[in-house]
Structures are given as C-alpha cells and as structure tokens.
Amino acid sequence: MKKFYAVLFMFNVLLSLLIITCNKSAESPQQTGQGLVSGNEQMVDRAGLTSKLAKTDVSLCAEDAFEKFPRELLEDEKIERDKAYAQIESVVKKYKTQLFDEEQSFQVYVEKVSKQSKTNGSQETDSTGDNLETLSQTHFYEVSDKFSHMDIVYKIYASLGYDVKVINKLEAIIVSLNLDITAPIGDSLAANFHKKLLDLSYGMLFSLYEITIPAWQITNEYLYGTRLSSLANSKFAQKLIELSNHLDEFIQTRARFIDNIKNVILNVKIGNRQSMLVVLQEIMNDKGDIISAFNFAQRKAAVIQCAVNNLLRAL
Fold it and tell me: Which own/partner pairs from 119-122 qualify as long-range (CB within 8 Å, at least 24 positions apart)?
C-alpha cells in the first residue's frame, strides 16, 4: 500500500510539472513580441486618430532568429558592420536635420509673408519676382475636429512638403466639399453622399498626417541616442546592412508619397461635389500610387522598429 501511495504521489508531481510546462509554452509566443509595437497594432496614433488604412501586422515584431551567443566577427565582417553602422548614423542624422529644417523654414516663410502683408499691404516676392502666397486659414476641422489641433495640422503640412501653394489648394478642395453642411433630414441619398465625401476626406488627411509620424519616430525614438550608438557594437553585420536598406526604402517611399499627392492636388480642377467625389476616390484608391506608397512606408517603419529592437536585445 505504501508503494502504491508513493507511486501515486510521484505521478501527481510529474503531472503538475507537465501542466506548468505546457502553460509556459502557451504563454511564450505572446510574450516574445510584447511591448515592441507601442500603439501600432490598430494604427492608433498619439492624437487618437484612427483609420482603416494599413493595419500594421503585429507579426512583423516577432523575435528574429538571432544566435544566443554569437561568435566574434572576423575582420572583414567588422569592416562591413562598421560601414553599415556609419551609413545608418549618417542617414538618421541627415534626415532628422532635414525634417527640422523644413519645418523651421516653413515657419519663417509664413511669419515673413504675414508680417509683410500686415505692415504695408504688399506681397513679398521670390527670386523670380512672383508673389509669395499667404498661408490660407485651415479648414481641416470641417472634416473632423480632431484635425483642428495645430500639431496635427503641421504634420499634414509636412507631408505636403510644406508647399504653401499645395496646402492652399488642399484647403480650397476641403472648402468646396461643404462638409460642414449636413444633409436634409430624411434624404438618405444626400446623407450617404455626404458620408462618402467625409470618409474619403478623413482618410486623405489621416494618411497625410500618419505618414510623417514614423519619420519623427525613427529619428527621435527608434534610432536615437544610445539606441543608435549601441548598434555600433552589434555582432550581426548583415542585420545592420538590412536595417540600412529598410531605412533608405522608408525615406524614399515617403518622398515618393509626398511628390505624388502634391502633383495630384495641384492638378485638381475644383468643380461640383460629384466631380470632387471622383477625385477623392482616385486619391484614396488602394491600388493607386499614393495609398500604395503610404501602406509600404507604414510597413517599412514597423520593420525598422522591430529590427532595431531585435538588434538591441541581442547585444
């Protein structure tokens, strides 16, 4: 009988250990990527804006297959690693300076033109003698009051290259839609039409705002300070080369998005609301160049964030 109870006791112990092990195994996939994509899972940004555009795949942040104890790099591998790191460091510094200088130049421009028009009523001219445009009052709030915050407005300006002519044209497009005028009660056709205009306008402004967020995150968060400098000691030269390529692709894609949407906006012929609906549908076409560039840039930014996190975790 004693032997029976002893065997039964050992069986219960082994069963308990087996259950605990299984539970830990079930939990580990969730823990692997936890905390690596702060706020990107549902494309919810810091301003509380949401959109159905480009839901970032959380699986992009799965832990990479790094060696637990990587060997020391050979001399030629160290050269590759140092070259890749120097390239990343240079690109990040240059891009951060570019983003800052663009905003500062825009603010100086706006203040200069505004001051000139107030003092003597005349317009400032550029090097070719053409009058410099005064920045129009924003009407983005007609799409949603979430676009009334100046920080959000300036992010949209940044995604238009801080081009005042393009910004003013976009403002004119928004005004022409009469989004602040609600459809008559009981008129379902008018209500549905108004909703289409509103949804498309929201999506357009959201994409303009959202594509600049990762540009600042990459230069001021993902690859900033010791997070950047620590990569100089990485033992994964090829991963640094890949990160450098991802960075270049993001910058190039964001620039292409800006060029494409600027050209479209400048060439829009403002007409009746029906014709403007067609214009907005073309801009927000999932298969079009603009939204394709937006989606690719968002995915690339997520890859950059995860690549940096994984490299730092492996140090």
Answer: none
Per-residue pLDDT reduced to its tens digit, 102-122: 999 999 999 988 887 777 655
Q: What's the start-to-end Cα distance of the chain, in Å? A: 56
Nearest-angstrom CA–CA distance, 281 and 287: 11
- What pTM does this model have? 0.78
* Residue 197, CA distances (Å) to 53, 169, 269 in order: 16, 17, 16
- The arithmetic mean of pLDDT across residues 20-42, rounded, is 33
d(CA 40, CA 295): 13
Asked whether 147 and 116 are in contact (CB, 8 A), the reply is no
**Cα 218 to Cα 189: distance, rounded to the nearest angstrom:** 44
Closest among 175, 113, 88 to 140, alpha carbons compared: 175
**Residue with tokens 């009746």, as numbered in its chain:** 272
Give the residue carrying structure tokens 């050209």. 263
Residue of 257, 144, 165 whose CA lies nearest to 211: 257
Q: What is the DSSP string of 37-62?
A: STTTTTT--TT----SS----GGGGS
Identify whether the C-beta of residue 136 lies closer than 8 Å to the C-beta of residue 167: yes
Instruction: Return the higher-pLDDT residue of 61 and 154.
Output: 154
145 Cβ neighbours under 8 A, 6+ residues apart: none
Contact yes or no for 254/211 (Cβ under 8 A): yes
Tokens coding 285: 């076409």
Q: Please enumerate in sequence order all residues whose Cβ is within 8 A of that of 177, keeping only pairs 6 or more positions apart, or say none.
A: 142, 197, 201, 273, 276
How crowded is residue 45: how many other Cβ atoms within 10 Å of its Cβ? 18
DSSP 8-state symbol, 163? -
Residue 266 is encoded by which pair of tokens?
């400048």
